[in-house]
Fold these 3 entries.
Entry 1:
Amino acid sequence: MVPAQKLQDELEVFHAYLRQNGLKRTYQKDLILRTFLDSEGHMSVEDLHQLVRRRDRKVGIVTIFRTMKSLTACGIAREIRLDDGLTRYEHCYHHPHHHHIVCTECHRTIEFVSPELEQLQSRIVERYHFQSIHHRFQIYGLCEDCRMNQPAAEKGMCDTEKIFGRDALMVAAAMERRGMEFYLDAAGRNLNPAGSEVLRKAAETEARHLEQLETELATVQRDERGLARAPVCLHFDPRELDRVLPDLESYAVDGRLELDARRAMELALQFEQRAADFFREYAGKFVETMGKQVLLRFAEHEMDHHREIKNRLDALIAAD
């Protein structure tokens, strides 16, 4: 069932489109929108007709076809074709732009988000001086089940936005884990006790954030049926996280790491600022979605930690 606020937002978008184009708002059109938003996956007009008729047998397939065209025009739905001759519709409003991997045998479809792919497409379009209007990228082949001639395994069926939100939580957790490991490694190598204590405290903060994220992820997967089994949507290169980490060797002298409390705080400030900047920039690649809000919230957590360390550093400098 679509959340009440999300339903209200999309109803307002749809009604505004109808008014602007001189079209009537009807109970049947609203029912079709509600049924579409309550559905998951890729729906044909025939699929949607069957679902709508369970609620009102008077709604005809022509009405559904025309309504879906209107929902596509106002940005609530997107038309897709999956190599089986049918036009299907998927949720579009406040969903990340994504692509599809399609099995030509069983027509199973996997959705994925890739900022790197989007950037590559943008560079190619700019190179040829095109103005992009829309694009579609789909990969066709045989899924593992079809190659092995075995029944398709049950897969989680969830809304793309919810999967994207889950994956954003996983990326944020990966950064917290990487930050915790970085601080612990630096503390273990550091020869200055006061500096090592600063780094260990920073690691403890990262560990608390990680625990919060893992609890949130577990709650989301428990409350949303099938979400834990849904394939990954947001494909993220973990090496991007390593680029955020400061180079400890640049702080070493004659191969030895000896950071006093002040220099340890400066190191932590560099990492927290980089992490916040990275995820703000990363979130900027996506439209307004649950996943984008997770990334922005994570960036703000890093800035909170940055401010906490900065205050401690300012107090230390003032005391000198």
Entry 2:
Amino acid sequence: MNKPTILVIGGAGYIGSHMVLDLLRANYPVITLDNLSRGHREMVSGGDFEEGDLGDPAILDRVFSRYPVKAVMHFAAWSLVGESVEKPLAYYRNNVACTITLLEAMQRHAIRHFIFSSTAAVYGEPQQTPITEAHPCSPTNPYGATKLAVERLLADVSAASDLTCSILRYFNAAGADADGGIGERHQPETHLIPLVLQVATGERDAIRIFGEDYPTPDGTCLRDYIHVSDLTRAHLLALEALLNGGGNTTCNLGNSSGYSVRQVIEAARAITGHPIPTRTEERRAGDPAVLIADSSRIRNELGWKPRYERLDDIIRTAWSWHRKEAGL
């Protein structure tokens, strides 16, 4: 039986492009919609591509009229915390207002399955770890606040209509597709693992460590790193659950284990063979000491299990990609 067509919005970005690839591997017809303001056309591995903005109703109507879309995956939010603090109006417009435009178009075209890329930033400063989905949501920056606003929007729209949705709250996405064809490329780059690897490729002189006096074993922050392909596999499971009549769900996505900044650097040194110099600076405001997910809900409800549980394995896939990017 032919599989239904899936629209991936933001499918030229880091996580979205891996999602497109995994959908194609699972034999789904895929449409990518991306305005390429932050994505890269060459990262889209196949399917049909439509260049356009999520906030343009005419473009959405064109896409929904042209293709028999059954479900929508939304990866098009802006996600830089510092930028969100500086430009809150832009973040609310892109992340919230444009999602309203999308949901209105979905209603016009009777499309009722939605998967939303959310974030652990909705929790804010953790009261306890590991963090379950029942943890209070109190975001500390506009980025997290916009993601939480969309989560609440989806709950309200779902209660008033036949919309069914899966909300997946990511912790620290990392790594690259094991085949090496696509990977992480951000401008500017803010994620620790690619920043560390850019030192190894010669693109940076050193990696900055923001604070070494946290209440952790080595004094640096602990984070839960999840491989991007494990993220996309979770989306596939969530998609199949919705298509098979499942109801709304909200799930954390993490490995449920934490690695410190120092541990990431040491692992990268061993894998790359580069000394990777460091420079210690003052703590950044708003950096929690520990962020670790309790991902038991998605494991129990959807049978998800990460394949890349070891930090070394995550970094190796990223290193293969960054070496290629740097022409090494």
Entry 3:
Amino acid sequence: MSTKILVVGGAGYIGSHMVKRLGEEGAYVTTLDNLVSGHRDAVLCGDFVEGDMADRELLDALMRHHQFDAVMHFASHIEVGESVRLPSKYYRNNVANTLTLLEAMQAAEIDKFIFSSTAAIFGTPVYTPIDEQHPRAPINPYGRTKLMIEEILRDYERAYGMRAVCLRYFNAAGADPSGRLGERHDPESHLIPLTLQAASGRRAAISMFGTDYDTPDGTCIRDYVHIADLCDAHWLALQALLAGSPGAAYNLGNGEGFSVREVIDTVRRVTGRPFVVKEEARRLGDPARLVADASAARSRLGWKPRYPDLETIVEHAWNFERARG
């Protein structure tokens, strides 16, 4: 019998790639998405339900009807700057609405949960690479909402036996190797798709914020992890929960970073296109380096990134950008 999975937020960037992966693995997938930031045409398999995880009546009906084995949650708001301007929006959706989802799961006796978390829970790095023992001190409402849910999930496991795996992404990047899926944020805020939009002519220029950091070329260094590799980690985490493993939290990254200049140079090399780069002042709160220590995911889940090199990540994202044009 196929494993039955509810994917909340499955029409968004990471969720849609996971829905596709689950379908390829033979799982029976139901996607719940309110389409505020997701795209209906990005859901390539399974059932689709337009709705919100705040709707307890809808959640109860779905869980009664399908009797899911596990739930995957990708339905958080994710823009750091917006979270500072509109904290109420983030606490309402990312915390209160997630609590509604967890209460519905508890009522339906669904005890396996995979949560899309973030490196933002760590705040400004005390050391790098960042492992799971690194102090958690988020510096914005977005990171705080994610940390709150991680703490709630630990309490739920102790009190109710609900087992959750929290996967803390560093910089999710790239696109499905087939070119059918990719990043479609509106507005877009991630460096690789922004730079590719400049290369394709959909954007006039790309901005480089800060060139005087304590890094080899003066620009910020980030750990980019391919979207397909993130999906591998989710699949392995699901298998661990289905096999009876307890809840856990893992940092997901390649373990090495690439600077803003390196990303821009790679985009120029891959696309062969000229574009304008504007050097601007640093943005408040941007640390010089954010790099993951993902050794726990490698050793305990058996996770090994298939696409660790920046050129491949950019190539796959460029294939999607060209398909959109």
